[in-house]
Design goal:
Blueprint (H helix, E strand, L loop, with lengths): L2 E5 L5 E5 L6 H7 L19 E4 L12 H7 L9 E3 L12 E4 L6
Parallel strand pairs: 1-5
Antiparallel strand pairs: 1-2, 3-4, 3-5
The chain binds FE2/S2 (inorganic) cluster.
FE2/S2 (inorganic) cluster binds next to loops.
């Protein structure tokens, strides 16, 4: 099964298994990764699943939807590699993807 690595701002890694088709927010919540809350259940309306995606994976992701862009505008530290984890579904080509959890969420 593919894996995802969530890291916190202090560099602590949480390597978890990610079933293909499951959102990265769901994967984080399933594994109690600190700082990824998923308060809206994946409806793209809370931004509590914000993470910074390893830049080498960005071109393998679907583009941000208008709704995701709108929600990201409200996060404290928006970066080029900011994504909402509920909007990314695990795919085999994302094996090993690394997501940094923003410091203010942990
Ligand atoms: S879980 Fe709410 S926006 Fe992702």
């Amino acid at each position: 099964m593919p894996t995802v690595v969530f890291t916190d701002s202090e560099g602590t890694c949480h390597t978890v298994q990610a079933p293909v088709g499951r959102s990265l927010m769901q994967v984080a919540v399933d594994n109690a990764v600190p700082g990824i809350l998923g308060d809206c259940g994946g409806a793209c309306s809370c931004a509590t699943c914000h993470g910074y995606v390893d830049s080498s994976y960005l071109d393998r992701l679907p583009p941000r939807s208008e709704t995701e862009v709108f929600m990201l505008e409200g996060v404290p530290d928006l970066r080029e590699n900011s994504r909402l984890c509920c909007q990314i579904r695990m795919q085999p080509e994302l094996e090993g993807i690394c997501i940094e959890v923003p410091a203010e969420q942990v």
